[in-house]
Design goal:
eight-stranded mixed beta sheet, two-stranded antiparallel ribbon, 11 helices, Rossmann fold, 10 strands, single chain, alpha/beta
Length: 293
C-alpha cells in the first residue's frame, strides 16, 4: 500500500462521489454506497444508530487510492428498507447476519471492516461470529458495555414520536447529529443534514430511520465476541469523547491479541465528521503497518 500524500489527504475534507446499489438480504432491500476503486482491496464501512452511510462521505475519498470503499445503510436506516414486522428484528445479531450475507452476495472478502458507534458494536458481533472474511477491524468510538440504564433510555426515546417538520429546509435548519456534540464544520454538518431526512406519507419531514431501532434495543454482552477476534484491530477514540473507557480498553486487549488503541485529535463522538483528515491518515498508517508485518 502506498503512503498517503498531502494531496490525497486534502481530498478527505470533501464529500466523495458515489453510486448506489440495492441488495436484498433476508427479505429486505439494503442500500450500499459504492465510493469506487473496484479491483483494489475491499473496505466496508458500517454507520452508527440513527445515522447512515453518509457518515463516511468525508473519509471515503482519502481511502479510495488504496481500497474499493463501500458503506452500508443498515436495515431501518438511511435508504435501506425498514423491517415491516410487528416486532421488527433490529438486534445486533441480525445486523451482523445482514453484513455476513451481504459480503457473501457481493463477494466482499479479505476486507477492512470499519464500524462507528453502534456500527462498531455490530461489527464486533460480526467479526466474532463470522471469522474468515474481514482481515482488519477498525472500531470507531463505540460504547461496548451499554448499561441497563442506557438501554432503557434508548427504549424510551424510541417509544415516543420524534420531531417532524413541514419542509426539507426546516428539517435541515433544525438538524443536529445524535448524540449531540461535534467539532465538524458547518458545511460538513449541512451535508449530513441534507442526507438524513425524508418526506413521509403524512407530508412531514423526519429523520430517515425507524424509531423501533431504539424502542427494541436490548442489552447484549459484547466483550465475549472479542475472544474470537484474532485479526488486527484498532480502537479509535475521539479525544473529547468518553465512550471508549480505560476499562473497555483493558477488557478488549485482554481478550484479543492484536488490538491497538489511538486517539483522533479535536474530535468528539462523530470522528469521521470532526477530523476526517487525521482519521484517514491514522487508519491508513495502521493498515499499512499491519500489512507489512
Amino acid at each position: 500500500m502506498s503512503a498517503l500524500t498531502p494531496t490525497n489527504l486534502k481530498l478527505g475534507i470533501d464529500p466523495a462521489p458515489y453510486t448506489t446499489q440495492t441488495v436484498t438480504v433476508a427479505g429486505l432491500r439494503l442500500s450500499i454506497k459504492d465510493f469506487g476503486s473496484p479491483g483494489k482491496p475491499e473496505m466496508l464501512c458500517v454507520h452508527g444508530g440513527a445515522a447512515n452511510s453518509h457518515w463516511f462521505d468525508f473519509v471515503a475519498t482519502g481511502f479510495c487510492n488504496d481500497f474499493h470503499v463501500r458503506a452500508i445503510d443498515l436495515r431501518g436506516h438511511g435508504d435501506s428498507q425498514w423491517d415491516p414486522a410487528a416486532d421488527p428484528d433490529y438486534s445486533y445479531e441480525r445486523y451482523a447476519a445482514d453484513i455476513h450475507e451481504l459480503t457473501e452476495l457481493l463477494d466482499i472478502k479479505d476486507f477492512v471492516l470499519v464500524g462507528h458507534s453502534m456500527g462498531g458494536i455490530v461489527s464486533s458481533v460480526y467479526a466474532g461470529t463470522y471469522p474468515g472474511r474481514a482481515n482488519t477491524f477498525i472500531l470507531v468510538d463505540s460504547t461496548l458495555n451499554l448499561s441497563p440504564e442506557r438501554i432503557a433510555g434508548f427504549n424510551a426515546v424510541g417509544s415516543r414520536e420524534g420531531r417532524h417538520y413541514a419542509t426539507e429546509a426546516e428539517f435541515i435548519a433544525h438538524y443536529k447529529v445524535r448524540p449531540g456534540g461535534s467539532t465538524a464544520t458547518p458545511a460538513v454538518l449541512s451535508h449530513i443534514a441534507q442526507h438524513s431526512g425524508r418526506l413521509f406519507e403524512d407530508g412531514r419531514w423526519r429523520y430517515k430511520f425507524d424509531r423501533k431501532v431504539y424502542a427494541n434495543r436490548k442489552r447484549v454482552e459484547i466483550f465475549p465476541h472479542w475472544n474470537h477476534i484474532t485479526i488486527p484491530a484498532l480502537l479509535v477514540k475521539g479525544d473529547r469523547s468518553g465512550r471508549i473507557t480505560p476499562e473497555t480498553i483493558a477488557e478488549v486487549t485482554a481478550r484479543s491479541p492484536r488490538v491497538s488503541v489511538t486517539e483522533i485529535s479535536n474530535s468528539e463522538h462523530h470522528v469521521t465528521l470532526d477530523n476526517p483528515i487525521e482519521f484517514v491518515q491514522t487508519i491508513s498508517e495502521f493498515i499499512h503497518k499491519n500489512k507489512s508485518l
